[in-house]
Specification:
about 475 residues; Uridine Diphospho-n-acetylenolpyruvylglucosamine Reductase, domain 2; Uridine Diphospho-n-acetylenolpyruvylglucosamine Reductase, domain 3; Alpha-Beta Plaits; 7-stranded antiparallel beta sheet; 5-stranded antiparallel beta sheet; 15 helices
């Protein structure tokens, strides 16, 4: 009780949650990783985070940083640890128009940063379905990706500076707005993607870009995935690299979407094997001004390229959004993929990365491999095809840990053969500890353990995540 009393004295009783008040923190969005925290602390400043971590250290209690609870890999699961929620660290300290950066606290919800940047004619180009609840601290801690990685990079590429509370309560101030700083190790990069195992991110400096003045968005069906890459490369060349998103949706995804959401219009009938959502963005006013026929140049460019590819046979059919409502309807089809997967029964969700030209080979080989292994299953797959990130979801007819692990290992075998990675954008958490033990280079694991031991010698920061025990996880 002295531990909780110390925290209550620091934060005020209203910001230390126990008992029934813990209900919403007992599971993340997936509900697959139930938690039993001893309490949830809700500090309102970096100083309070620092003091809360010091108190936990004195009492030997582990600390689990918590943001919007939108993770998919069990990265905030705990049994008896102290959750430190960053939800009250929610100030946008600055949006700097001249230098095109924002200084934000870890609890700022992603969509709120989008709105603040847009008010200044700028854009924070990290975009995915959970943007209405995911928080900046979480997206940096998992190195989130999303749909705009193709043009702007992942969270790692969009971060200039960080403020981090370390395991001993010290505050590491890396809040630089510099685009270049070659003064030794880039410590900032240690904490991005570390999932709170090295410290708690409390604030960040992030890059902004000019807000696109117009988009050209289309849904098309391609003859094959290699043909889809031809579409991507042709549009990149024609637009000068203006492709912001290039998203693949399989026929099985579209079929499940039709079953679960019959209210959402399907783009093609009958259902097509290769469905692509492509979006161009322009910041140039000349690309937005209608010509004599009332056509905006960016739309004309999209249409001309697609017509040319249809004549060549690479594109089978296409529709171009004529207004914002149609554009958002196209995006809804893609952004419902997580809901489709996690509401369709037991699922082995594989978030993998591959060289772009090997995605088609992966899909062919992995299904052959699963069939040879004797698995009965359904699969749904979508991809950020422009950056090689495939979400391959397997729904086995049988259930159990042995089935889950067997499917994962079959998928990993094919991924490794093709030079890919078993983890692309969702992080590791507890879900992929087995994959880390099996597939991560042993020297790399030793280096990671050494870094963890140096920064968190008592292993209290989000223990049991990211790095498998030396004995491995079977």
């Amino acid at each position: 009780m002295s531990f909780l009393n110390d925290l209550a004295d620091l934060l005020g009783p209203e910001n230390l949650l126990t008992g029934d008040d813990l209900a919403r923190y007992r599971a993340d969005w997936t509900t697959l990783y139930p938690s039993n925290p001893c309490a949830v602390a809700r500090p309102g400043s970096t100083r309070e985070v620092s003091e809360a971590v010091r108190i936990a250290a004195r009492h030997g209690v582990s600390v689990i940083p918590v943001g919007g609870l939108t993770g998919l890999t069990g990265a905030v699961q705990t049994d008896g640890g102290l959750m430190i929620s960053v939800e009250r660290l929610n100030r946008i300290r600055e949006v700097n128009l001249a230098s095109q950066v924002a200084v934000v606290e870890a609890g700022v919800v992603l969509s709120r940063l989008h709105d603040a940047a847009e008010e200044q004619g700028l854009y924070f180009p990290l975009w995915f379905g959970a943007r209405g609840s995911a928080m900046i601290g979480g997206v940096l801690s998992t190195n989130a990706g999303g749909s705009n990685v193709l043009r702007y990079g992942s969270a790692r590429a969009l971060c200039l500076g960080l403020e981090v509370v370390l395991a001993d309560g010290r505050v590491l101030d890396l809040m630089s707005q510099l685009r270049k700083d070659n003064s030794g190790y880039d410590l900032r990069q240690l904490f991005i993607g570390a999932e709170g195992t090295l410290g708690i991110i409390t604030a960040a400096v992030v890059k902004l870009v000019p807000r696109p003045l117009a988009h050209a968005t289309a849904t098309l069906s391609a003859r094959s995935l290699p043909d889809a890459l031809t579409v991507l490369n042709r549009l990149q060349s024609a637009s000068g690299g203006a492709v912001e998103a290039f998203e693949y949706m399989s026929r099985t995804h579209m079929a499940r979407l039709a079953q679960m959401r019959p209210d959402i219009r399907q783009p093609f009938s009958p259902l097509q094997e290769v469905n692509i959502l492509v979006e161009l963005g322009t910041t140039s006013p000349r690309d937005t001004l209608p010509d004599d026929q009332g056509e905006r140049p960016i739309m004309e460019l999209m249409k001309n390229v697609l017509v040319e590819l249809m004549e060549e046979g690479a594109v089978l059919d296409a529709e171009i959004a004529q207004n914002e409502s149609q554009r958002m309807a196209m995006w809804e089809r893609r952004e419902l993929s997580a809901e489709i997967c996690f509401s369709s029964g037991p699922c082995v969700e594989c978030d993998i990365a591959l060289p772009l030209d090997r995605v088609a080979a992966f899909l062919d080989r992995v299904q052959d491999s699963l069939n040879r292994a004797g698995h009965e299953y359904d699969s749904v797959h979508v991809a950020h095809l422009g950056d090689g990130n495939v979400h391959f979801s397997v729904f086995p007819k049988e259930t159990g840990d042995h089935v889950h692990d067997s499917v994962m290992m079959e998928v990993e075998d094919v991924v490794v053969e093709l030079g890919g990675s078993f983890s692309a954008e969702h992080g590791v958490g507890v879900m992929k500890l087995g994959s880390m033990a099996r597939r991560k280079d042993p020297v790399a694991l030793d280096v990671m353990r050494a870094i963890k031991a140096a920064l968190d010698p008592c292993h209290r920061m989000n223990p049991g995540k990211v790095i498998p025990d030396r004995g491995g996880v079977s």
